[in-house]
Amino acid sequence: MQAVTHNGVFHADDVFAAAVLKIAYPGILVQRTLDPKVIAEADIVFDVGAQYDPASNRFDHHQKDGAGDRPNGVKYAAFGLVWAKFGPDLVGEEVAAMVDERLVQIVDAGDNGQEIFTPVHSYGVSKVISASTFLEAVTFAITILDRVIVACIVEIRKRRGEKMQAVTHNGIFHADDVFAAAVLKIAYPGILVQRTRDPKVIAEADIVFDVGAQHDPVSNRFDHHQREGAGDRPNGVKYAAFGLVWAKFGPGLVGDEIAAMVDERLVQIVDAGDNGQAISTPTIEGVHPYEVSKVISSFNASWHEESKDTFLEAVTFAITILDRVIAMCTGEIRARELVRAAIAAAHDDRVIVLDTFCPWQQIAIEESKALFVVYPAETGDTWMIQCIPPTMGSFEKRMPLPEAWAGLRDAAFAEAAGVEDAVFCHPGRFICGARTKEGAERLVQKIFA
């Protein structure tokens, strides 16, 4: 199927119109051109062509008489015209009307030069969209539109006293469906998760995961048990329910960078285990790591125990794990910023001085040629000088501490180093400390003396 819009500079109305069509017709080709022949032959034309005729799928508003106004006076642009035609079939009339109020009218008004906000120059979604390339902008717009649709569904159901419904399989649970449920509980507090294989219940659910033999993120179907699976990551790790749900909702919860880190640190481990992919090999025969997937599986009743449904207990535990992984990834990103700033501010390229304890190894190793890092210990009563290794995980040092300091403590170390508040030097000559920052800096000067 072929859709056409104009080329050149794009705006939010044509980008969101394309997003609607991508959702309505996955795989649709959107061509950007002003060629009259291409426009005439296209199945759908929007924001170009000087014609508004929904029956023939022509959705432009640039003709002299425009394309009409809403009852509240907000004029239609391409997004509104396309949404009015396809939105109700996608999400139902009530949700479509709410999405029009919450998002579509904002974009349409902006494109038509109608001022509906104070201050007028607020940096709204239309300006964000205009700051991307067209395909990137459409992908971003799909994400925004999806989130607005879901938020409107949740609000409508709250008004009716209803709750959003998710479905997964019953019986024995595994880490992938438990963590997928955890993501949904975080994204939509109060969501109901039903465990069943009833086809009617599955068909009517808002979100279905790890059951149903369908992967379609647009309609919130997240299974990987179909014959062709649900795809692999670039590194070969196959997607299971946790990964599919996280890929859809994770970036909206924590942002793209943190979502990618969480996928690497936790999600891929769970997905690989559920798909039977070995990603680690024991080095000691008979000793195997007790991974998080096994911990989650242990919430199932053992064969000799009375059977009971502990799924929600496992989900609550998974939420705690996921929350901590997110927090650790967030902290790591913040630490990178602090270390980069310290590298930029260094008076001596050989030494990085941090005023706050934080993980420093990766950035110090990969983005500096420094030999030592000075930082306050977590306990707060000592300042440390640590040797920077040449690579992550290495026990080697770019430069070791002086041999004469090795293994000394307290008065003996203070005397050998010539620094009054020096506290200790590890026998391995990779770390030493003093009671104050000034003392640590004097120790560094002695190293280079």
* Count of distinct structural domains: 3
Main beta-sheet strand count, sense and barrel state: 5 strands, mixed
Q: Helix count, per DSSP?
A: 15
Distance between the ends: 74 Å
Describe this structure in words.
The protein has 449 residues and is of the alpha/beta class. It has three domains: 2-158, no CATH class; 163-278 and 291-318, no CATH class; 346-448, no CATH class. The chain has 15 helices and 15 strands. It has helices at 12-24, 36-41, 78-91, 93-111, 125-129, 134-159, 175-187, 199-204, 241-254, 256-274, 292-297, 311-345, 361-367, 410-417, 437-448; strands at residues 2-5, 29-32, 44-46, 52-53, 58-59, 165-168, 192-195, 207-209, 215-216, 221-222, 351-353, 372-376, 383-387, 422-425, 431-434. The strands form three sheets. A five-stranded mixed sheet has the order 2-1-3-5-4. A five-stranded mixed sheet has the order 7-6-8-10-9. The protein starts with a strand and ends with a helix. Mean pLDDT is 91; it is low at 118-123.
Q: Nutshell version of this structure?
A:
This protein is α/β, with parallel strands linked by helices and 449 residues long. The chain has 15 helices and 15 strands. The protein starts with a strand and ends with a helix.
Question: Helices, strands, pairings?
Answer:
Elements lengths: L1 E4 L6 H13 L4 E4 L3 H6 L2 E3 L5 E2 L4 E2 L18 H14 L1 H19 L13 H5 L4 H26 L5 E4 L6 H13 L4 E4 L3 H6 L2 E3 L5 E2 L4 E2 L18 H14 L1 H19 L17 H6 L13 H35 L5 E3 L7 H7 L4 E5 L6 E5 L22 H8 L4 E4 L5 E4 L2 H12 L1
Parallel strand pairs: 1-2, 1-3, 3-5, 6-7, 6-8, 8-10, 11-12
Antiparallel strand pairs: 4-5, 9-10, 12-13, 13-15, 14-15
